[in-house]
Sequence to fold (360 residues):
Amino acid sequence: MSGTSGPAVVTAPAAAPVEVDAMRRALELAARGPHGPNPRVGCVLLAPDGEVLGEGWHRGAGTAHAEVAALADAAARGAGTRGATAVVTLEPCDHTGRTGPCTRALLDAGVARVVVSVEDPNPVAAGGAGRLRDAGVEVVTGVLAAAGEQALGAWLPAVRRGRPFVTLKLASTLDGRVAAADGTSRWITSAPARHHAHGLRAEVDAIAVGTGTVLADDPSLTARTVDGGLVERQPLRVVVGHRDVPPGARLHGPGGALVHVRTHDPAEVLRVLHEREVRHVLVEGGPTLAAAFLGAGLVDEVHAYVAPVVLGAGPAAVADLGVRTIAEAVRLRTVEVVPLGPDVLVVATPVLDPTTTEEH
Fold:
């Protein structure tokens, strides 16, 4: 947000090719950062002649932001930054939290130009571009914006919507069953599909299941490596519903913290998780919880693992949604199809306006 009493806004030219190349490098650096409540951000500092002065990325909550890390790297190299250009994947923050404002660090370092991929939608941290412009710094935004938004992943829509990004995970037979008539379900999908699902668990901030799944399956809700060990960062384990988690349940064992949300309202679940700075939640089960989130319109993405198995009976992957005619169906748009051994993963997103879908 530009001030009304500061210097005149400087009109910055478009990004130069060397700056676009530096943005690609900054995006690579951003990918090194961890998932979590803070965005993954990368920064490259360039001299006026295009030489790289320093690089940095955000390594997690409470650590130096990417711009400050890049400035520290430049200092360690003995490189001066006065008149430099900072190429950063997300608009520099202009607030003091666990660390100081990046705008102040850039100004103190004498940076003359800032090239940004994505403007910060967080009302707490936004305004950095305006602050820099008011101080006479050239600012260019929207450079490789699509790649920048992709790099931010679930963090960006979560901040924009004020709630966690919701991925619904389904694992079913070809005819949509999640268990046989006698309740047995291990294993419908193959080892490659299960390993892939653990990789997804390792990327999210929380995994949610209903109390029915807890009582029926006694899951541990952990993210594991191929050899069965726990990954270093474990997601929160969220149980939704009023029934108690048994004292001897595996959810009390090694893994992420256990959060019990005693409600059947998906919006309330997301409110509680938003307060805990959860940006991405994986809704894993069971059919009742899946139907609740779908029925509430609170699913942003579906990961459906489908095995070439037919049962003909048993519980469906999604409980009754109240759909009585094909026109009321929840429509999805396929984004990606991934073969996983004998199985297949279908990644799809809800169609916001079903009237735009083609007839089949």
Notes: The CA atoms of residues 17 and 23 lie 10 Å apart. Residues 1-10, 356-360 have pLDDT under 50 and may be disordered. The radius of gyration is 23 Å. The chain has ten helices and 13 strands.
